[in-house]
Each structure stands twice: as structure tokens, then as C-alpha cells.
Amino acid sequence: MKEPKVPPDKRHSASAHVSQHLRLLSVRHSPSRATIHEVTKMAAGASPAQRQDHSTDHPELDVLPEWPQETIAVLVTTDPAPHAIPVSWPVRAGDRRILISLKFDRGSLARLRERPEVALLILGGGNVALCARGTAKVIAEQMPDAEDYVAVQIDVAVIDDHRQSAFTVDKSIQRTVLDASELHALQGRVATLRGWSDDQN
Known about the structure:
Layout: H1 8-29, H2 33-43, H3 48-52, E1 72-78, E2 82-88, E3 91-94, E4 97-103, H4 107-114, E5 117-124, E6 128-140, E7 149-161, H5 180-200
Antiparallel strand pairs: 1-2, 1-5, 3-4, 4-7, 5-6, 6-7
């Protein structure tokens, strides 16, 4: 059976109508530009927080505040996974310098020798809530009267201010040193660090 012949002008009209209909369907059902961007980021492994594109910046302080001597800080090093340890009685040695003592066999000491970028979280009385980020270096392989401790200086590049209007930090994290000789040794190391700080300033 022969197919009926369609005049050329009718074929052209039908083809144009079909093309127009397909274009309309494409516009109606194609994802928006933002959706395509989100899908691309998901495929690349972006986290939900990254996809929300919220700012993660914190307010910053120009200089380090004062904190009580007995404050316990948290030192974060990497290898490249992060490791956090408590550090007793960090010494403010300037507007952007902190001194701490670490035992010679601590893993954190080995890590900061390899990767000097560190962070020190301090929550102290007087509403001190900050994270000091910078580079660490050993300034004394053996401390006077404490040969198993190393003195470390942190040169602070950024001071993240974590204070909030909803609460204040009225007491610092503290330890009760049960061994009198250990307390005396800690006080001696801090006195040494403070003496070095005064000499530098």
C-alpha cells in the first residue's frame, strides 16, 4: 500500500510544529542552572555544609588577651589527621606569641616538628574564648631543671574570637595537681617561660 502523499508545505508545517513542541518540553523539564551546579558539587564530593555555602569566618582579635596562669589549653597538631592534647599553663609571651612546655616523648612534639602549623584552643576565666592558629618551633631542647621537657614557641598568625553574647567563660579548665613535686616542677617551668618572655619583650 502506498503512503498518502503530503504536500511539501504541510510537511514543513508539521515539522516546525514538532520542533516547537520539543523545545517547550525541554524548557519545562530541564533543571535550573542552580540545580545543575548543586548536582555537580554533589558529584564532586562536597559536603552538605559546603553546598549550603555559608560563611565559616569567625571574628578575629588583634592581640592575645590575658588569661589566668592555671589555664589548661588544648593543642592541636596534625599528621595529617588532627590530634588534640591538653597543655598545662600556657604562657602569653606577647601580643602574638605563646610559650608552652612539652615532654620530650610526646607525640604532639614529634608532629609539630614535622608540621609546624598548629592551633591552641584557650578557654579561660575572664571570658577568654579563642583559638590561636600559627606555627610552632622548639626554642629549647632541654629546659633548665627540667631536662625531660622541651620549650615550644607558637608564633600566632590568626586569633579566632569565640566569645558569644549568650554566655561568658567565668572559669577556665583546670587540673588539680595531686603530686606536690609535680606541681613544683610545673611552676618552675612556667617561671622559666615567663622569664624568657620578659627577656624577649
